[in-house]
Amino acid sequence: MTAFRVAHSTAEWASLVGSEKRAVVSVGNFDGLHLGHQEILQRIVERARRDKSIAAAITFDPHPMKVLRPESAPALIMTLAQRLKGFERVGLDAALVLHFDEALARVSAEDFVRTVLVETVHARAIMTGANFRYGYKNAGDVALLKKLGVQYSIAVEIVPPAEVDGKLVSSSAIRQAVAEGRPEEAAALLGRPFTLTGTVQKGAGRGSKILFPTLNLAPAQELLPARGVYATETVIGGGMYRSVTNAGVRPTFDGQSLSIESHLLHFPNDKTFPKDETLSADKTLVADRTGETMEVRFWKRLREERKFPDADALRAQIALDIEAAKAFFAHQGQPTS
Fold first, then answer.
1. Residues 233, 296 within the same domain
2. Of 108, 140, 161, which residue is a domain's last?
């Protein structure tokens, strides 16, 4: 199987993929790679295999809104690197990442189709949603795309929007659900839990001394969940652990900056976490893992963040949060120990 290839310009596409290969493609931002995106990309892969073509996506970096209207640009669900990994997981052969700037914004819809879809990726077919817009001032729509498809012998397939419980799946709906503290709804639209990925950063040290030890995440994404306490899964060192995560500013200690702190419910005694770093499920010891890659998957919001009169009161509440998280996972058929 050929390795997944990523080109960051039309010239690089030619050198990585070659000019003799035709492609089945889709064009978009694909932020979140939600169920609607997945349906389009899976159809691309199926048709490309059938037609012996390249299965590809064309996407943009930065998000066009950050160039055109930065004051109203959305907080992104995924980084570019995460988006590309998602493309690879769904089975695409290649991705073309176009740098979005003022020059690209001024390219007309007709010229975009001609220079990118026809002359660069040699599109055999394009699949997209009914609301697809492209080109200067978003003048291009599906009707124009179909007309140009006839001109350039490109099949155009419009994929119906995905729905979950009567709700249209969209990146905007996912952002709203995450920002309002509804991770279950976000997970239903994504087809997986909303996830923050980044590296472990050193915390203030209060957890291991007076509360419960935590791993502090420096998230790579822009979109962050509503402040509160969540039942989560934390992935680090090749293992996945049930956890309780606080997303907030630690008001009990007069904190100011937002932090993502995960208390792991259980460290198994394995090669990833040596014996001297492993205690019981009730008293997890977290060694210094600063700089390691970590991801946190958000399943359920247990409560809002609030200020407690002292550390003892906070400690008592965290103990209740841990029990609530254990009960949630047990109800899901996912025991924590």
1. yes
2. 161
Mean pLDDT (the chain, rounded): 88
Whether the ω angle into residue 183 lies within 30 degrees of 0, i.e. cis, is no
CA-CA distance, 199 to 196, in Å (whole number)? 10
SS3 category, 244:
strand
Residue 278 lies in a domain: yes
pLDDT (0 to 100) of residue 308: 86
Q: How far is CA 81 from the centre of its chain?
A: 10
- DSSP-based three-state secondary structure for 222: coil
The closest of 124, 107, 18, 3 to 60, measured between CA atoms, is: 107
The SS3 assignment for 155 reads strand
- Residue burial 31-56, b: 16+ Cβ < 10 Å; e: rest: bbbbbbbbbbbbbbbebbeeeebbbb
Decide if pLDDT at 248 tops 60: yes
Residue 17 lies in a domain: yes
Q: Is 292 exposed, middle or buried (0-12, 13-18, 19+ CB in 10 A)?
A: exposed
Evaluate whether residue 168 is within a structural domain. Answer: no
DSSP count for the chain of H helices, then E strands: 11, 14
Rounded to whole angstroms, the Cα distance separating 290 from 308 reads: 28
- Tell me how crowded residue 121 is: count the other CB atoms within 10 A of its CB: 27
